[in-house]
Amino acid sequence: MQARIIMLVDLDYFFAQIEEKRNPALKDKPVVVCVYSGRTKDSGAVSTANYVARKYGVKSGIPISLAKTKLKDVDAVFLPVDKEYYSKVSEKIMNILRGYADIFEQVSVDEAYLDVSQKTRGSYLDASELAARIKDDVFNQQKLTCSIGVGPNKLVAKIAADYQKPDGLTVVKPEYVLRFLSPLPVRRLVGVGRKTEQRLETLGVKTIAQLARFDIQKLVDVFGRNLAAYFHNASLGIDEDPVEERGEPESLSKISTLKEDTNDITKILPVAYHLCEEVHKKLTQRQLVCRSVSIYVVASDLGMHSRSKTFENPTSDLQLFKDTVKELFEKFLAETDLQARRVGVKVSNLDKKEAMQKQLTSFFGG
Ligand code: TTP
Ligand code: MG
Predict the structure, then answer these.
(1) CA angle, residues 218, 224, 229, in degrees to nearest 5
(2) Residue 331: which domain range?
(3) For residues 305 and 350, is the Cβ–Cβ distance under 8 A?
(4) pTM for this one?
(5) Are residues 280 and 335 in the same domain?
(6) What mean pLDDT, rounded, does the chain reach?
(7) In what helix (H) or strand (E) does residue 64 lie, and over which residues does it extend?
(8) I need a labelling partner for 155 at 20 to 30 A (CA). Which of 42, 71, 199, 354 fits?
């Protein structure tokens, strides 16, 4: 199999850069884009800030009042977020980027992974030229700068994109991955937040090189097997996660391991209800409705069993999910004498919520 070449494209100070482009008078001034909560004049948080404002310590997530204090002696501009407009710009940019990829995966409003392995025939020289062309194209069409990281996988591409910002292009060939990662702080790895960073620091691990050398068994003791394996591989620049187009999902599910194997419904239901809530949250976040609900049981013999129910009409009603899941578990437990080890909840036959509303309005002639 041919080695992969992956790019991560991340727009620079995205919301603030769009505002600068929309109003050239803002250029060179500190620009702070804010989510006002409306409680008092300045309550709310900073969404993002341009690089001029960042020099004063203003960044995403800090209170607006704090940003104002930091910028009190300068001619700074505070603007409310205009999500609708940014989404339109984002869509145009994503369409440009999609055209350059063999496989395209948008990860946020201003970030996307491009698998360009085929297109570049595995050549890093071609990939660097392609990345430079993408930057030009985005700039020519939208007058916005972005930073691109190129590497053998998503993990390296992401860190490379953050390495030189704004308007950066960082290419890390496979043979340079370890040298590139080694001196960087562990915080650069996706999944290492402030808490994990602190826990690693108490173990004497600050850099990615130190993480790579750290005893894996000790990592397992502290973080559990999955996370330890992830950290260990990540520190060596190993990441197999494929770039995948994110269409509408076919189904959404959550599964959980029970404290002990059981066929006692009173022990299963609290877990199942919690899974319903999680699945419901995912469904509503994506503004979807579903027509089917299923339960999954991994039994103590490790066999997988499922039961489903399909409704007349699409729904996202949490109480209905819970009632249905209860009914399905009662039925399942009455039909078998298996002990459940893991239980899962899935919704499928998904559709956009608007689609349901449209159907209803046309049905009622509205
Ligand atoms: P980021 O790409 O994280 O940040 P950015 O584009 O502003 O800056 P950078 O040059 O470092 O890439 O996020 C993209 C947009 O998402 C950002 O412009 C505003 C929004 N955002 C928030 O609203 N809140 C947040 O906490 C973060 C991190 C981003
Ligand atoms: Mg960005």
Answers:
(1) 80
(2) 251-353
(3) no
(4) 0.72
(5) yes
(6) 93
(7) helix 64-70
(8) 199
- Convert the pLDDT of each residue in 212-246 to its tens digit: 999 999 999 999 998 999 999 999 999 999 998 87
Q: Which of 30, 62, 84 is the last residue of a domain?
A: 84
In the three-class reduction of DSSP (H, G, I as helix; E, B as strand; rest coil), residue 352 is classed as: strand
- Which residue is catalytic, options 111, 197, 277, 335? 111
Pocket test for ligand 1, best of 9, 18, 48 (most atoms within 8 A of CB): 48
Round to whole Å and give the CA distance between 111 and 280.
26
- Judged against a pLDDT cut of 90, whether residue 285 lies above it is answered with no
Last residue of a domain, one of 84, 108, 139: 84
To test the pocket of ligand 1, the residue of 9, 34, 60 to mutate (highest count of ligand atoms within 8 Å of its CB) is 60
> How far does residue 111's CA lie from ligand 2's centre (Å)?
7
Whether 241 is covered by a domain: the verdict is no
Any catalytic annotation for residue 111?
yes
User: pLDDT at residue 357 above 70?
Assistant: no
Mean pLDDT across the stretch 106-125? 96
The 10s digit of each residue's pLDDT in 95-106 is 899 999 999 999
Q: How much is the pLDDT for 356?
A: 58
Domain contains 366: no
Give the ligand 1 atom nearest the CA of 81.
23
Task: Classify 219 as helix, strand or coil.
Answer: helix
Ligand 1 centre from 102 Cα, in Å? Answer: 26
Q: Are residues 110 and 191 in the same domain?
A: no
User: What residue owns the CA closest to ligand 1's atom 7?
Assistant: 13
Atom of ligand 1 nearest to the CA of 12: 10
- Residue 278 maps to a domain: yes
